[in-house]
Amino acid sequence: ERQSYLEKLSLAEICAWICLFLREAKTKDRKAEGLVLPTPSEALDQAIRYTQYLARQLYGELRVDPSDGNAYTYGDFVDCYGQQEAQSRWAVAQIVQVADDPPTLDCQLSLLLLDWCEHKDINRIARWIDPHLLGTFVKAVMRVVSYIDIVREVCLGLGFFEVHNRLDNHMDTLLGGLVTNESLYLQMGS
Fold first, then answer.
1. CA–CA gap between residue 108 and residue 20 (Å, rounded)
2. Could you tell me the pTM of the whole model?
């Protein structure tokens, strides 16, 4: 049975998931002002955790487990054998991939995009990031728009027709209210 995390996500959550791969806007802590970023749903949280796992697989050190001949990370050895036995098996396993630093998958931009999709309030976004970086946020949204087009094609190829259809209105969801006369002239309160 195939497993697709995207099938469990809403359009806004898929857009937020795509933001994991962008390195754009940095958010400021606004909890003291009562402004909190949305909490990801269980489905989005699972997709994020699995994406982080895949990044570790891609960039982490891999060694061959002699018992089955497959390559695994140290964490996989621990999950399979327990901490103590994993250490001894890891020490004698053949290295097939040297570890690189995995990319940092920052969830802040993802949560900021979720907030944008929910509230469509550019002034709210401006409170999370420095106003001079609003263009960076807009650029990130535009990148997500273009990536969604690619994801839609991939979904068709994989037979994920419901996900493909869910992504139909991505332009309205992402761009609605972003580039208007009102959004171009922020009225920052004191």
1. 9
2. 0.76
